């Protein structure tokens, strides 16, 4: 564990708390992509299968349980409790285009051709693009509630913090995880447009609005 | 170069 990774994990944790807070206080999942949330459930379950057979640390164990639990809870809230506030007609990104290529990439790029390792690779690749249905939706509506943009910013910053963590680990431990690094850089890259608008508008107290 | 197969990250 190092400073950057901790900041990344805390940012990830914060993003989920902001998301649940938004759903609870506005009693609505308006502006949120159900597809993106469903992809995160798939990401966490396929990546954290090792919960059942590998002990890393208490921190690792608790965080994994939290990420699986909170993503399932989010999906439940969106699907059942606040279902009427979700508009499927604007959540139209085809997730087949993400899941298929990620599955193929995972079969090609993995550290060992075993079920758990291929699923782990799959989860890393899928996480890197899981935000696309959400960003696509944002692009379509052209605006977002401020609380939703805080959620997206925290979620984007989380993986960005992992990048200095990997550099740090390379120099201190000699550890390199090319699959996570390439996917993590791609994942952060997808947020650049969003970050630009977030930091130039929302952080200055303006509403999140995309230029027409 | 050591591949991180321990997957100790989240």
TrEMBL record, chain A:
GO terms for biological process: protein retention in ER lumen; protein transport; vesicle-mediated transport. It comes from the Eukaryota. Keywords: Endoplasmic reticulum, ER-Golgi transport, Membrane, Protein transport, Receptor, Transmembrane, Transmembrane helix, Transport. Its main location: endoplasmic reticulum. Pfam families: ER_lumen_recept. This is ER lumen protein-retaining receptor. InterPro entries: ER_ret_rcpt. The chain crosses the membrane at residues 55-77, 97-113, 119-138, 150-167, 179-199. The keyword Manganese does not apply. PANTHER family: ER LUMEN PROTEIN RETAINING RECEPTOR. One of its GO terms (molecular function) is ER retention sequence binding. GO terms for cellular component: endoplasmic reticulum membrane. Belongs to the ERD2 family. It is a multi-pass membrane protein. It is found in: Endoplasmic reticulum membrane. The lineage of its organism: Eukaryota, Fungi, Dikarya, Basidiomycota, Agaricomycotina.
